[in-house]
Structure prediction request, 197 residues.
Amino acid sequence: MAAINLIPIVGTFALYGWVLATLYSYRQGYRRLAPAGFSWGSYSYLFVGLQAVGALLLYTVAIEVAFVAGGFALGVVENWALPNTAVSEDIGILLSAALTVAVFGALFCSYVPILIAIHERGFMGALNPGYVVSVAFRSPAQTLAASGAIALVFVVALVVGALACFVGAFFTQIVAMGAWGVILSIYATRVARPVPS
Prediction:
């Protein structure tokens, strides 16, 4: 998968599809990573990866638009309520920091439920915000733990890859993405829904 990941755009789609194929493999009881390549039987990594990247991109844009709108609203309220005082600047900084933490928290915690929604119901399931939220709230503690584990694995893999030399980051990213599939399968079994066939 490392060589496929070097292909611009297509490699990213294949890699995300491979992660979801690994999730599918573990949920079917195989307990191994999905085979490298562009497909596994009738499971097309490119098609599923395109769905995953598309859904993640749409949610990221929506959350960022909410961030910009919230920042604009905070600026208007701050200037209207407390015009040009030292206190207003401090309050503005605190409100901006809180908004930033909320937005990045939403991005951070939405990643796992979006991928699980694609796994369970396909692309249209992931485009249903109500369903994605219901996946996240099946077990909020498990969602946070899975999101944290995925972030930690990714950061460690990139740091190790960067220390090995920056080219190594491409190869350690594959290890991280394989671990993502395993983490997602553990999460999916703990927030139990039937295995898609």
About this structure: The mean pLDDT is 82. The helical segments are 2-5, 10-27, 45-81, 86-126, 129-136, 140-164, 168-190. The chain is about 80% helix and 0% strand.
